[in-house]
Amino acid sequence: MSSFKTTQTVLFFLIFYFVYADVALSPFYPQFFNKVFGIEDLEYTAFYIFIARLTVVVAVPIWGLLSKYFEVKHLLYVGQWVSAVMLVGMAGSQDTQQFLLFTILLLIGKSSFFLVYPLLIELNGEGKRSAVVGAYHMIFHGAIILGTLSGAWIIRLDDPLLLFYGLAGVEVILWLICFLTLRKLSSRKKIVLDRESVHSTSKQVYFVFWIGLIIFAFHTANNMIRPYFTTYTINDFQLSIVESSILFMVPSAMAMIAYPVIRKVYSQEKVPFVFAIALGVLSISLILQGVTNSFIVLSIGRVFYGFFLAISQSALELYLFNKSSNHMQVYTMASSFQNAGLLFAPLLASMSVMSYNLAAPLIFAGAICLLTLIVARLTLFKDTKPQDQKTDVKEVG
């Protein structure tokens, strides 16, 4: 295996591990806090998740700013060692205050992993950009599936805190692998601006604001359906917990299937059109899941939802990378908008359920996606015209 392929494999594995470790315990926090610290109040879980996500919102752009002055690999090393030490602290926590403090410090270190994705984009160049984005989403959703499945086993451990000692050991091993394989990797480059880049300060601020707002709305909509989905399907469709869990994971499986499509359909001139079509279908599939009384229609909605979720998110990320000259800083700022959406989504979901019913988050999410599509068309994609696309194709050819 060539040095470049080895480097790329290690970076993709870091993404897999980052998502897997984040997902494995997250669906079971209420059971975890009850078993380890004797806390039965569900409000503490909501508070814990809120603080965790707020930490990431603040930390990620700081790492992006640091990447302007330091090699990304060195920032990753720092993040890995911070993570290892904090995981040991979490394992030895005597109460929830200690556990929360070590969690905050852990997430500050872990946020350095958000630099891996834009680093892969830069290493592969424009020609392989869609392939990297497709591979990223396949690995991302594969990690979600495996993490969710293993989480049920983790929570049954006699002392779940021991898990964090194991994760600390994994962090050290990963640091050693990274140190040995990324030695020749350099993320410092001279930024070359062209007509496709966001080349002026005013344009960059405009671009980051609008794409950040669209990313915020997109992730708010697609995460507000998560907290109550299994309860909705169990209550309204009389599904078992196992059946509901399988239906919950269908979109992640469909996102992995979408990988070959993502690789083939994207080019710079097609991205706005692909995003519009995918988000339109995504919106309809969400509303359909919320208004139907048929299990078959619900299942079909989940299939379409997962497939076009991957397509629309990939298109949005490709547009971000295509239109930004500094991938690290722009992506990490955009990631803060994404995490702000993850912060806001459960609150909006709870409000919609209390005001209406368990199906309301799906319907509201579909409406938000439609609104997001309109805003994107009026802001980010307002200058996209068919004649411009034809010109681009001729120039490439």
TrEMBL record:
Keywords: Cell membrane, Membrane, Transmembrane, Transmembrane helix, Transport. It is a multi-pass membrane protein. The keyword Electron transport does not apply. Its main location: membrane. InterPro entries: MFS, MFS_trans_sf, MFS_Transporters. The chain crosses the membrane at residues 45-66, 75-93, 99-121, 133-155, 161-182, 205-225, 237-259, 271-291, 303-321, 333-353, 359-380. It is found in: Cell membrane. This is MFS transporter. Pfam families: MFS_1. It comes from the Bacteria.
